[in-house]
Amino acid sequence: MKGRFFMRADMILFDLKRNIRTMLIWAVAIGAVLSIYLFFFPTMQTNQNYIKLFQGELEMMPDQVLAMFNMDDMVDFSNLLNYYGYISNIIFIASCIYACVLGAGALAKEEGNKTIEFLYTMPLTRKQILINKLITSFIILFLFTFISSIITMFSAVIVKPSTMALFDLIIPMMKVIGYQFLIMTGFMFLSFGFSAVLKKTSIIAPIGMVIFFVTYISGVFGKTIKSLKFLKYFSPYYFIESNKVIKNGYFNPYYLLILAFMIFGGFVFAYFYYSKKDFKI
Known about the structure:
There is one protein chain. This protein is an all-alpha fold. Helices cover 74% and strands 0% of the residues. The protein contains eleven helices and no strands. The chain has helices at 9-38, 41-46, 48-60, 63-68, 80-112, 116-120, 126-159, 166-195, 204-224, 242-248, 253-276. The radius of gyration is 21 Å and the shape is globular. The two termini are 20 Å apart.
């Protein structure tokens, strides 16, 4: 008889153990890259020539290239939060890709690795399997965000100017990280819908990257071509502009609705498709 409860702690813990190593590698790598950039900040702050050189290089770039990385609004790089906002925009691409790959592999790995046979020997329905996989993926994404953020914030505290209050640094960074987590969650759910269809583990990473870059390129067109401005609403990466969040905490409420639709749509599609899917066991 299949179990009554949707949430199975044993299954979640088993999946966490299987995925924790990959998550740690990604989280530490993202945190480390952001930290390396942050450790350059004191040098830039004390040497105006570096700032002028950097801003001069940016001014020479086409507006379209700057728009691709949400860098089309020039700010003062001698300000730590502004500096963090720019580097986080770039590194956020890698975080979004991780969220897509994580979601795309949530269900597909079981069939691709033939472990679906083992799950079928347990008192679990397909809906229970799906719910528990989704819960596990969300926990992993949260841990990824938490670990990479702790590393980044610790580095930012080390390099912050002595005249800057700790909370004036941490609170704006937490706002940016919180909004980024919402966007990554949207990507994860969207990819989770595709995961119900996939059958081979070899295409999980490519599919995850395709999902991100198709939306990313849509956003590039939306930001650089006026007649295609509507396409930016199909690109969650561009939903957040870190420097605007840092300045006034602004996040377009329409983007929250789109993210809610992505989350709901990805879940509903996976729920109904996976319930009727024919497995090759």
